[in-house]
Amino acid sequence: MNGNPAGNGTAAPGSEVAVHVSATEPGMTRFTAKAGNASGEGPEASLRVFLGTDTPSAPANVSAAWDGSVFTVTWEPVTSSVNNGYVDYSTLRYDVYRCPGRVKVGESLDATECVDTGIDPLALNLYYYEVVAVAGGIASDPGVSGKTILGERIYPPFYNDFSSQEAFDLMTTDDCNDDGITWIWDEDINAARIKFSPELKMDDWLITPPIRLEAGNVYIYRAGLHSVRDEYPEDFEIKMGDMPKGEAMTTVLVEPTVLASQNTVFYDRTIQVEQTGDYYIGIHGITDPYKFYIYVDEFSISSAVSTAAPEGVADVRIKTYGDGRKDADISFRAPANDIQGSPLQQIDRIEVRREGELVKTFENAPVGETLSFTDNVPEASKAYTWSFVAYNSHGAGTIVDTQAYVGINIPGKCGNVSIVETDDPGVVTVSWEAPATDVEGYPFDPEKCTYTLFKYEGGKLQPVVTGLEDLSHTFRALPENAPQAFIRYAVKAISAKGEGQESYSDEIPVGPAYSIPWVESFKDLPLSHIFGVNYLQGMPSIMLTSAEAGGINPQDNDGGFLMMEATNTADCVRMFTGKIDLSQASAPQFVCHVYNDNSNGKYNQNEISIQVSTDLGNTFQELRHLVIGDNCAAEGAWNRVTADLSAYKGQEIIVGWQCTFMTHTTIFMDAFSVAEKPDYDLEASEIRLPANIVPGKEFEVNVKVSNVGAKKAEGYTVSIFSQGVKVASAEGKPLEAMGVETYSFGQTLDILSDETTSWYASVEWESDANPDNNTTPETEVTMSYPSWPTVEGLSCESRDGSNVLTWSEPVINREDPSPSPRHSRTGSRSPQRSAHGRSMTATRLRSAASRMLSSPYRICRASRSGSTTHHILTAPYSRATASRPIPAQSISPRCSVRMTRLLTTGPYRPFSPERDRR
Questions:
Q1: For residue 429, what are the contacts with CB-CB under 8 A and spacing of at least 6?
Q2: DSSP 3-state percent helix, strand, coil across the chain (nearest 5)
Q3: Confidence (pTM)
Q4: Which residues touch 13 (CB under 8 Å, ≥6 apart)?
Q5: Distance in angstroms (rounded) separating the CA atoms of residues 578 and 507
Q6: What is the C-alpha separation between 254 and 297, in angstroms, rounded?
Q7: 543 exposed, middle or buried (CB, 10 Å; 0-12, 13-18, 19+)?
Q8: Which residues pair with 448 in a beta bridge?
Q9: What is the SS3 assignment for 872?
Q10: What are the CA-CA distances from residue 704 to residues 688, 748, 770 (Å)?
């Protein structure tokens, strides 16, 4: 019998054997029998049967029919049991419950029909019924009817537990941010749910049907919500309004609140209205992008309570015991005022109910006094809800609900798990706070648990020590002389009921700190040091990339660099080093290289924050903030970035770079170092020029020079270059360490200069220890030309040793002298403006055009280079200006024309090979 001997004896072959056995408790029992003789035992025969009184089967085919005034509930009679065991059907009766709320409307019925007359057909509600068969004191599972929705508005009381799609469909949703993501019914956990948006902040309402509220009465609104997990917080608020739209929600019930609990959290609010009418209550999801889910498990609105009825009891305390006892010691303070705040004269009684069952009544309770009693619950290791309500001549007052767990439950999570490295490298102390609640959120006695410490490694928890009673543990985390490593630990609280959920520490570097110079270049891809990562928004990828990946070479051409790639805008990740020892440093600095990626055609507004931590990565302080496009001027190239660490000399630090993705999905970095700043190091930080240059008009070239060395810089030269040729220089001024100086150079380009010119600046200094940062990135500027008419069809022909030029006159509309669109250039000035930018009226334009038609043409350039002669011709020339020059087309191997532009602003001057040699 269930593997235990129950009887034995002898019998003749083929005879029937009977053995009387008894079971200690009802349940499925396995019987086995076998025969044996002197030669051995035969095979077993077995049978499984249910012993004792069985559970009746659930009533089948439950239906609820509405005829306009009553529900008639019918079902089939129960004639079987769950395990085909014994049931005394003569005692079988039926209980019927109206749901939601599980109100009993039929009890101990011997018929298979029940009529429910307690329905208000005007009151909006979802109705269904449960029928339970009871025999010998054993109740069956319920048989459930279909669901029916009646009414147009809620007349309190009302309760919705979102147990079905129909229950959810009573609600209204409002997707105010129009992102297509709003509240739905989650059938897996029977709750309303709103999902995060990858780009937009939540702005979604879950709104009740109309609720009829009466002026002069008080109502209790309750909502139960939870998040995915405790460590994934969400944000919400609750408001009330007179229309089922987000913009109509104006009365605040619950202020914007952080929801960070995977267990249901209840929010109770008292509601009073000045005018009788229909009102709507909305739960508003307002979580930032890329979080998780908000769940609404239930909401309810209580019956109306007169404002002259007693207010709720206060200071409710329920003491339970973690030793298996069923006792709950309960105390509370009786109301002193009514709901509207006036002093109470008397309290007729205070009722205390457990799970709806009346367990204690205090008759003629003293106003404002503390009352107490002990409740012996039916079973331990279970959560109970106690409800308290006081009565006077105006009726029942405000109901106060309090929950507690009786017996020993599974502990909740430990708090504030932290790691501190001792003075002995590799030896750490892990500490934590005892769980304040059990796994269901009820108060928990920490003396009833022990702790297990785990090491988190490779995505798994490895036990370190079990049975701890203290709230800290000191031990060696790394072997002596082992290299520095990141470690992370977790702690679980364990009671006689089971293990709680683990709580994690931060990940910190432990072991001997790195000395300087610390250099990480990702050479050939493997890492030379340890790194940590904090995902602050989203989950950007961090990877090492080989040479020429995506067309980008490593900054130092050593076969590897770092790439971070985001999925969504505003993703943010921090990467950080291990511990770096600056105890022997005098002028330390951090250096890295950032690639200014402009491949998508957008100005790169991705951000990098250089940060420092002095507490093992628990907190970071910003050292320097970069916008890549602003601070890394060389587009499509690597840019050197420095940050001074002198304020941290003598300490152990961690350096981090926090990357936020704004306009580009990738950030490339390479060649990191923490080292002593050289004594002498000048940096050509920046060169700035106007966006457009007018020929013949002076403009400024500004060069910023920074002293990133540790000592004063003197005796250097600052130069600027155009088209690779040095065009100006200046002697540098004495510059203190960390000083910055700007040098301005006045420059002029004539009409013979190229339309687009490239510029850069450099610092020349013999003492400079780091020449890599002595030259600025190149920047290009474009010439601005007037929009005068131009000649067409310029050609050149060699005849008898001479070059013959021919062209056609420009076609000019005297009423509209604007040039043909084919001569316009991006960035050029409007045809309605002169070469100097002054506005010209139509009359002046026509006059200018007339003068030009009668002006001579001009060959602006004729020079021979080997066997090739170059010619440039402008349109009609005047003393004021000339048109955009047109080059002749090459018509023979000996005759070609240089493609260039020409604009004169002064009187005609003959070509001089000596003077105009270019």
A1: 419, 420, 422, 472, 473, 474
A2: 5, 50, 50
A3: 0.50
A4: none
A5: 11
A6: 17
A7: exposed
A8: none
A9: strand
A10: 9, 20, 17
